[in-house]
């Protein structure tokens, strides 16, 4: 999902007229649904092949495919489009307003790279036969930290620039996504 959000946000900044006039209205919902479906399919296959009907070869092949799809396709695409968006916004002579959504996306991508990618790399290399000096639990802990950081990012970005002491969580989320 981070990959598709990065691509869509980048296209909306680079080609705003095309996005407003030619982009199908429900494209985001359709792509998100397809991605959730693909994720459900791959996880269901993993559960069946690795737990219910254990087949070492099929399980191994599926996990390598998932790791390669994540690490060799989605992550580089996300990085490319996020970096393009970042450079376009920051180096623009028009001084485009960055907004809260841009900040949320950039922070989410940054923390994804720091905390979630190591687990993907570790799993992929483990199934390719390479062993690391530290245990896989470190990768799982980093991945959990990434998941717990997202609501904190939304809250902090949503509450940024508001100097009032009393501030609701709902208002923070609303402000973070108002763009």
Summarize the helices and strands and which ones pair or pack:
Blueprint: H1 2-14, H2 16-21, H3 27-52, H4 56-90, H5 99-127, H6 136-159, H7 169-176
Helix pairs in contact: 1-4, 1-5, 3-4, 4-5, 5-6, 6-7
Report the average pLDDT across residues.
Answer: 76
Number of strands: 0
Compressed to H and E, one letter per element, the order equals HHHHHHH
Number of domains: 2
Structure notes:
The chain is mostly helical. It has 2 domains: about 1-135, no CATH class; about 135-179. Helices cover about 80% and strands about 0% of the residues. The protein contains 7 helices and no strands. The longest helix has about 35 residues, at about 55-90. The chain starts with a helix and ends with a helix.
What are the main properties of this structure?
single chain, 179 residues, mainly alpha, 0% strand, globular, transducer
Tell me briefly what this model is.
The protein is an all-alpha fold and 179 residues long. The chain has seven helices and no strands. The chain is 79% helix and 0% strand.
